[in-house]
Design a protein that fits this description.
By secondary structure, the protein is an alpha+beta fold. The chain has 6 helices and 6 strands. Strands 1, 2, 3, 4, 5 and 6 form a 6-stranded antiparallel sheet that branches. It is elongated, with a radius of gyration of 23 Å. The protein starts with a helix and ends with a helix.
Length: about 250
């Protein structure tokens, strides 16, 4: 009798374990699987990323991905130590709107080595939050702190994902992002700050005028620092999702 009970428990354990594994590899509705062997895998991945848009708008609870529209960023640090704008800029309590209107227009994937290049467009992005800036603009020391608003129009962006395979304790395989590179180009931009240090005086107004009159030059100078800061944030954001999606879910023949 005891032997029968033990055998029954073992069988039940195997059934439950198999059910859990099947559930682990179940394809959710927000994923369109692609195959490494597909000669048109770039088109498939492009379709998959664009298919994600409505789900990213509301957030994907089962992999802990929050809504990207608006996207909340607690803290973003940019440091530029060279050129005419030597600035340390800290942005916090940032809200970005417009991210869900992205269109992936190009993908080049090396799925053997888990490297993916993406090109995408955003028609309009609005950002607001708090800022603290210290440094030098041209030869003048700058210290400013307060609220900021920015609008970016017709954003062309590119991202390069360098990943590697990762196995958890259950030998389930995932892709982990080791490095993320980001670049962008803007057609138009508009800035507004409310400087709480110089608010209501000529310095605060002069800063707003300077930002908008020299937007292209400021963006060009700060772009490397901005790219690095944004890439650091989104590397953590994307890894949070990829490390909850087994490779078998989105690359079944991996």
């Amino acid at each position: 009798m005891m032997k029968l009970i033990v055998c029954t428990v073992i069988v039940l354990f195997k059934v439950i374990n198999a059910a859990e594994k099947n559930d682990t590899f179940k394809t959710p509705e927000y994923i369109i699987p692609c195959y490494k062997s597909d000669p048109e895998i770039n088109k498939c991945l492009q379709h998959t990323f664009n298919h994600l848009r409505p789900y990213l708008l509301t957030g994907i609870k089962d992999i802990d991905v929050p809504s990207i529209d608006p996207l909340k960023i607690d803290r973003l640090l940019m440091e530029n130590g060279q050129g005419a704008f030597r600035i340390r800029a800290l942005f916090h309590n940032v809200t970005a709107s417009g991210g869900s209107n992205y269109t992936i227009n190009k993908i080049k994937a090396d799925v053997i080595n888990y490297n993916i290049e993406l090109g995408f467009k955003l028609p309009r992005v609005e950002i607001k939050g708090k800022y603290e800036v210290n440094g030098n603009v041209l030869l003048f020391p700058v210290r400013s702190k307060g609220d900021f608003w920015a609008i970016f129009l017709d954003v062309d962006a590119a991202a390069r994902i360098f990943g590697k395979e990762f196995q958890d304790k259950d030998n389930t395989r995932y892709m982990k992002i080791e490095k993320l590179l980001i670049d962008f180009r803007l057609q138009k931009s508009r800035f507004r700050v409310r400087d709480n240090i110089n608010h209501g005086n000529i310095i605060g107004e002069a800063m707003n005028q300077f930002l908008n009159n020299n937007a292209n030059e400021i963006i060009a100078e700060m772009k490397p620092a901005a790219n690095a800061a944004i890439a650091k944030h989104f590397k953590a954001f994307l890894n949070g999702a990829f490390l909850k999606l087994p490779l078998k879910v989105w690359l079944p023949d991996a």
